[in-house]
Amino acid sequence: MLDFTYYTPTKVIFGKDSHKKVGKIIKDYGYKKIMMQYGKGSIIKSGLYDEVMRSLKENDIEVVEMGGVEPNPKLSFVRKAIDVARKENVEMILAVGGGSAIDSSKYTASGAKYDGDVWDFPSRIATPEDALPVGCILTNSAAGSEMSSSAVISNEELNIKRGYNSEFNRCKFAICNPELTYTVSKYQTSCGIVDIMSHTMERYFSVCPPTDLTDRICEGLLKSVIKSAKVLMDNPNDYDARATIMWASSLSHNDLTGSGRQHVLPVHQFEHALSGEYHEIAHGAGLAVLLPAWARYVYKHNPERFSQFARRVWDIEDNDDLGASLKGIEAMEAFFKFIDMPLKLREFNIPQSCTERLADLCTYGKQRTIPTYIELEYDDVKNIFDLCY
Amino acid sequence: MLDFTYYTPTKVIFGKDSHKKVGKIIKDYGYKKIMMQYGKGSIIKSGLYDEVMRSLKENDIEVVEMGGVEPNPKLSFVRKAIDVARKENVEMILAVGGGSAIDSSKYTASGAKYDGDVWDFPSRIATPEDALPVGCILTNSAAGSEMSSSAVISNEELNIKRGYNSEFNRCKFAICNPELTYTVSKYQTSCGIVDIMSHTMERYFSVCPPTDLTDRICEGLLKSVIKSAKVLMDNPNDYDARATIMWASSLSHNDLTGSGRQHVLPVHQFEHALSGEYHEIAHGAGLAVLLPAWARYVYKHNPERFSQFARRVWDIEDNDDLGASLKGIEAMEAFFKFIDMPLKLREFNIPQSCTERLADLCTYGKQRTIPTYIELEYDDVKNIFDLCY
To answer: ipTM exceeding 0.85?
Structure first.
């Protein structure tokens, strides 16, 4: 087991009607004036907006609204939000939504306390030294941003998507009511499921000494997500299945599934290049295409690991490690297909000629390699993108 | 899944040599004067005391020492420590040791900020509203106190042992170096393993709607602990096995293994009566006797649960739920025997006539029942103690 620091200070308030407590929760922290970030109106249509506002009002919380966070949240929006947060002197940011609203809020929170441009953080020019507190009401199980230290943003000028990790990115509280995800579409539910599985699998497939306990937690989480996903395909309002996916979302990305392991998420690097270039591709859908391609390219470099994954997660019975590995990858693909995820990039009508550009984006113009089992250089990265066709 | 709040703000610094960072860590928090609580000299013999003091000195931390914490920490010691903490105006308490040093520190920390007597907390007369921060350097994997909200203490005047839960009982940081547990005796290592398993199993066996994810985490943790325990019997200096047990200790009792489940620890109630009366019985050894006895008494009221436990944790192949349940309990007993734990109370030379007194203590003089599957009344509790013979 590698040395690690585990720090998950987010208070998770999980369960039915939990969002109705938001005003009281914020009041108990002592905040009186907040910024609320949310998306494009789905929370208004569902009635969540009214319930949240009522709770905030009842607890005398003054609210500065910043609606309009887009999927793959945009730098220009964050810059605007930072200006407003400073001008209005808000004491905290409340995100109501999924990973986009939360990540946008995280950037706003650290940007508001930084003299330079917030793009400096994902560009590794600066690291945050202070931030406003962020809390969230989660409405989509996917990104795990509610408990994670990471935040991803898209720079429209440069057409790239980048993230960074910081302890200042940890939410102070996360209100998680699985019922709020009943209205998430089947497609977006599946995208979220792939994202959760990917956060878990990419850590699971990192290189390190034995971490049997973390392995078992990852495998158990994956089995449980797969089981719940199958339930949700037929019954999207199954509370326990929605609750399992929501809690798995938080646990998959709060560092538990990586404790004692190397922290690298190789497939996410591929996907950020992909959906950074093609905004119409949902993050989870991109991962569903990339995970099997990546796995097929690297599994022979560590069949012990891939066969353990196959046997324990997918119940593959095959004593040959290479054979079992391949069957595990096939089982993963079949599952993605079962939950209606794309398996190939051609399903998005993206011509294969784009793989050069994608490989270039992913390697920052051949300036970096992508790790795990073998260092993937530009040509490998392009080969993996080619396998997506 | 039941509603729950998950809040584990303890920063865990896990790995080799991590204890040498203690001075820097405390300095970074801004504390200049601390109380250090530890046991009876084993940390001096091992050299840990010197290494800790060196790190504290190098970082200009002033230390008020309170050595002499006993196993099953005593109320009288805590009262003395509270007086010293107030008189010396210490800013935090550092526990160097296992559950005893940490629990003693937790009581000192909340007692120092309370006008009444600290026994009011476990007596349910008062709840803490403030506390000094507590940090720890863990030297034994067992109680899980390094991340838990609970603290147990023995009142020598009344000859009883009680605990209580509070968010003020969460350590601010926990320094976990598995190498520090190399010198823990085989017997104490086994006691710790049973305690960790019991924290997990008692939550696992609570009553609630489906919690597949939490089930899988519990089962994975147990499988991993069992595997590592077997390694340690032959090779007590196996780093990965020691690390697994140490990390499992924290995870078993930080609420992860109970998320979405009812929070009751029935067997711990029995054991507190037992080792509260017979101080020579180590907590884990008492649990090793009580867990199978409790399980045999209640399993027929929920064979679905016990057979799941048997099949997933102990790999029992038996399609009959009752039959599988019993085989699972037998496998657990065989494992406890394998790690040299006692299986019967007669091994402690305690006469069976004591079971009336123990049942009386456990039920607070027939004033309470013990839950899970059936409400265990005085007669049931006595029957279970009788099964321990």
So the answer is: yes
